[in-house]
Amino acid sequence: MTAYVITEGRLYIDGKWQDAADKQTAATVNPADGSEITQIAQASEVDTDLAVDAARRAFDEGPWPRMSVHERARLLSRVADLVERDADEMAYRETVDMGKPIMFSSTVDVPIAIQLLRYYAGIATQLDGSTRGAETPTLNYTLRRPLGVVAAITPFNFPLLLALTKIAPALAAGNTVIHKPSPVTPLTALKMAELFAEAGFPDGVVNVITGPGVALGEALAKHPRINKVAFTGSTEVGKAIIRNSADTLKKVTMELGGKSPHIIFADADLDSALEYAFFGIFYNKGEICAAGSRLLVERSIYEEVVQRLAERARALIPGDPLDPNTLFGPLAHQGQFDKVSSYVQIGRDEGARLVAGGEPYTPPGRDSGLYYLPTIFADVDNHMRIAQEEIFGPVLGIIPFSTVEEAIEIANDTEYGLASGIHTRDLKKALTVAHALQSGTTWINTYNKYDSTTPYGGFKSSGFGRECGPESMESYTQIKSVWVDIS
Q1: I want to staple 313 with a disulfide (CB 3.0 to 4.6 A). Which of 85, 129, 374, 487 is the partner?
Q2: Does 255 participate in catalysis according to the annotation?
Q3: What domains can you pick out in the chain, each with its CATH number?
């Protein structure tokens, strides 16, 4: 794997690279070894105002929202071509910044990023209204119009993809954007800013400000000249953004936390179900909102499932994320490592049976790194904290059940409702359970499948609004009605 040189990260505002107003910087760190990758500018409220001014001016006075939909589509397609050209560097940045194995960065994240840009390039040309009937002699019709300035606030676990699920539809609709990436994973956001500039986007249409999450997120949520906030992250932070945006009546979409139930019935294809259950929690080191972190297993196959998954977990050894053979890398940052460690201790204290992992790991030849072994608890009660609270790491709780009704009851007994999975050969059972589960996505005999054409989002405390698919455009546009007297 080529090691790309990554220079100091500056703010990208109004088509220009610049230092933070107070010249503050902070290191972004490689979680595999603790080394500093580069220094990143730390924006303040002054920089936020500059970014808002640029985005506002680009929307109110610039060509972007007035541009032909075909030209907007062409520019979005051009960015997709540039990401494809620089795919290796994009994957490298994602891996060294977040610890995601290069196998997944290069074969999942970057290809889907390209797909998202091309999909929304197509959507840009399909935003139309409709004529309506009226009793009076009038022509009345609707138009779909952009909102204005959109703030995209994105997390550390899928830095590239979760940025483009917001930026691509926002731009397709004719909005301008301020992107605030996670302070611990800013590298692909800065590269994307380069590519938007190279593609020929007008100044101020895309702006990127890096820095402290809480302060910048609050400033964006409260800012009176921002029209919409699109956020992915924890439920608690999402609630704070909603509160802070209330006085200015911003449109908001929230893709928040999860504690997704993954159900295996006794009549399932067990080999397949175990494969999906395993990667449903350990893919991306469990740092994924939709992780199948609660595995519900029918009692007649319960011990076999526990044994086989524990053996599989013990065989999954964390390694260098830049090694193309590595499937499981380090956790993304120290705070996440500490959180996972604390929840493993909580699980022990609650009386769950630890059957795999449960401790940090240091790969051979290394003396540092945020590695944690894949961890499985059996005999978990759904009222335990490890079953109710989002850990956001490689910790699986296995819960037994006896009947379909009990499985549904346990699955829905959570404040979250992001995703769920079902494994059974009985189609009627599968659909009955799928329709009863309180989740925005349900996978049947599969798990962790995504596509830019298909909406994704949560029920209950997992948020509201949808990303991907044409449904997402509802969150980035507003409807205008026009009446024409033809009498």
Answers
A1: 374
A2: yes
A3: 11-256+462-483 (3.40.605.10), 261-451 (3.40.309.10)
